[in-house]
Write a structure and sequence with these properties.
The complex is a heterodimer of chains A (258) and B (302). The longest helix of chain A is centred in the middle third of the chain and has 34 residues, at 110-143. Chain A has helices spanning 2-16, 19-39, 41-47, 64-87, 92-97, 99-103, 110-143, 149-176, 180-200, 212-222, 227-253. Chain A has one domain (2-15, 22-30, 65-253). Chain A has 258 residues and is mostly helical. By secondary structure, chain B is of the alpha/beta class. Chain B has two domains: 2-220, P-loop containing nucleotide triphosphate hydrolases (Rossmann fold), CATH 3.40.50; 225-301, Alpha-Beta Plaits (2-Layer Sandwich). In chain B, strands 5-6-7-3-8-9 form a six-stranded mixed β-sheet, with helices on both faces. Chain B has a four-stranded antiparallel β-sheet with strand order 11-12-10-13, covered by helices on one side. In chain B, strands 2-1-4 form a three-stranded antiparallel β-sheet, covered by helices on one side. In chain B, a hairpin with a 2-residue loop joins β11 (247-253) and β12 (256-261). In chain B, α2 crosses α3, α2 (90-100) runs parallel beside α4 and α3 (105-119) crosses α4. Chain B starts with a strand and ends with a helix. Classes of the chains: A mainly alpha (258), B alpha/beta (302). Chain A: This is ABC transporter permease.
Chain lengths: 258, 302
């Protein structure tokens, strides 16, 4: 099947250029850095020279739910940056280098070309998210207290939708522009803009994808999935699919050579 | 049988016409050379036929093609500077190309083996493409373009970037391939076109300025030049030959006296009579055939 051939090529490429190793490692690092560093903060302060005698610092005791959010916070900033940089050349780079001149003169369906790349990126991103958040969960359980596997898996699934949207935005810009740097810039700019718009119109945009983490925190604290969370997830998925369709149409209309 | 009909094809960028109202048709099993100076629109035509560019006007029609059928199934295309995935091996790229053209894994593999053998890089099939030489890449490029047995193979400047050995190999390969499919290739190296093609399309400034079979064009552009070589100093024969009635003028190029004449048969008679009478040490007498280059210059510079 043509789609599988395209998908398998991407997955193989990620092996050969070691993305399957460094992306999960970066996600693990980002996910555990806050849980670990916050727990060991007193020891860290001690070892870098200590504080004058008599100094009293009250360090808050974090609840597991708060620590999960710290991990997500890192992924939302640096994790998103990593995804953007990793995906910025997936189509744009091929068009820029000219290899797409060989590939797209074959009877390749544009929807296969784009969805296969999208799916391969998602496989990598979801796997990295899963591994990273499980690592974070491991430390949370040791250092901060009990958090059920059930809730961490729900966190991973819902947060995965947000990262899916990030990948979709990147794929969309990949079909519009040939320069990977521009793709990366616009992807990040779009996400920042979305967050600003969500904050300004917060009373209307209740289900904006940017609110996903907020509802996730509620979910971890209360232990129940709110309808707002579900609707936000649905909106996120719909926007992702919409971007994917737009990308296919854009590529169809594009001239693939100069 | 007609394979492809191109009707009034035009392509413009930012209001500038790169290809203007080009019409032609190809017949099955021919090898057609697209010749023209740099910037004549050769690559644009090939890319448009390959579907990489969309025509501004005009139609491209394959015979026997169903409505809405994907034109790309019937063509193989090799760009001037093919770029591959350097991390793949030659074999992997071939199989990938085959799979994209709807061959099964097994078919793709079998066909890849055959073609890599044919183009002569079977020994390097498991080497990374990044380590291939220019000639090997070009041959891999041809092999991947024909993996799905296209009806029309299009090659953009297939030999211009190669060294003489690579060039010879690719030309020989093209001669073999033309038994199996129609080939359209662009070049500005005229001797290559002369060597492998049956038909020519001469392009200048986006327009077809001349076309036809090699034989027809030769006849049409037959020059009336006789080339003479003598032992010793040429210059002393130039004057008396110039004086002959049928000779228009003459020039010396290297060691050859080139004589333009009005009537070949008459001039031959006169020149040979003169040579015999004077007892000149003639070493070579040639009736010049129109070279493609003369034709090209004539058509392009007007």
């Amino acid at each position: 099947m043509q789609w599988m051939a395209l998908f398998r090529k991407e997955i193989t490429e990620y092996w050969r250029n070691k993305k399957w190793i460094w992306v999960p490692l970066v996600f693990i690092l980002l996910a555990i850095i806050d849980p670990v560093s916050n727990y060991y903060l007193p020891q860290i302060l001690e070892s870098v020279g200590g504080l004058p005698d008599g100094t009293v610092i009250e360090l808050p005791d974090f609840a597991p739910a708060e620590v999960v959010m710290m991990s997500l916070g890192q992924l939302s900033s640096l994790g998103v940056l990593v995804i953007t940089l990793m995906s910025m050349a997936t189509i744009a780079g091929e068009r820029r280098s000219g290899v797409s001149e060989l590939i797209l003169v074959k009877p390749v369906a544009y929807r296969n070309y784009i969805t296969a790349k999208w799916a391969a990126l998602l496989a990598l991103v979801w796997a990295s998210l899963l591994i990273g958040m499980l690592a974070s969960w491991y430390y949370i359980n040791i250092l901060y207290g009990e958090l059920s596997l059930h809730s961490i898996l729900l966190v991973i699934i819902f947060y995965g939708f947000w990262l899916t949207l990030v990948v979709s935005v990147s794929i969309f810009y990949n079909t519009l522009f040939k320069t990977p740097g521009i793709v990366a810039f616009l992807t990040i700019a779009t996400i920042i803009l979305m967050s600003i718009v969500t904050q300004i119109f917060s009373h209307v945009l209740v289900w904006s994808p940017n609110n996903l983490t907020m509802y996730l925190m509620e979910m971890v604290q209360t232990g129940s999935i709110s309808s707002d969370l579900v609707w936000t997830a649905i909106v996120t998925i719909i926007i992702s699919i919409g971007l994917l369709i737009a990308a296919i149409i854009a590529l169809k209309k594009k001239e693939l050579a100069n | 049988m007609t394979l492809l009909t191109v009707n009034k094809l035009s392509k413009s960028y930012d209001g500038k016409n790169v290809v203007k109202d080009v019409s032609f048709e190809f017949h099955n099993g021919k090898c057609i050379a697209l010749i023209g100076p740099n910037g004549a629109g050769k690559t644009t035509i090939l890319r448009t036929l390959a579907g990489l560019l969309k025509p501004s006007a005009g139609t491209i029609q394959f015979s026997n093609m169903k409505e809405k059928d994907d034109i790309r199934k019937y063509i193989g295309y090799l760009p001037q500077y093919p770029v591959f995935y350097t991390w793949m091996t030659g074999m992997e790229f071939m199989i990938y190309s085959g799979r994209l053209s709807y061959l099964s894994e097994a078919e793709a593999k079998k066909r890849a083996e055959t073609l890599l053998e044919k183009v002569g890089i079977i020994d390097a099939k498991d080497r990374k493409i990044g380590k291939y030489s220019g000639g090997m890449k070009q041959r891999l490029g041809i092999a991947q373009a024909i993996i799905h047995k296209p009806k029309l193979l299009m090659l953009d400047e297939p030999v211009s970037s190669l060294d003489p050995i690579g060039r010879r190999e690719v030309l020989t390969l093209m001669k073999e391939l033309k038994e199996e499919m129609t080939i359209l290739f662009s070049t500005h190296i005229l001797s290559d076109a002369e060597e492998v093609s049956d038909e020519l399309l001469l392009l200048n400034k986006g327009e077809i300025v001349e076309s036809g079979s090699m034989v027809e064009l030769r006849k049409k552009y037959q020059t009336s030049i006789i080339k003479l070589e003598f032992q010793g100093d040429l210059a002393k024969y130039q004057e008396p030959i110039n004086a002959l009635a049928s000779v228009a003028n003459s020039s010396i190029e290297r060691d050859v006296l080139q004589v333009s004449v009005s009537d070949i048969a008459e001039a031959r008679q006169e020149i040979l009579t003169y040579v015999l009478k004077e007892g000149c040490p003639l070493t070579s007498f040639t009736l010049d055939r129109a070279s493609l280059e003369d034709m090209f210059m004539k058509v392009v510079t007007g």
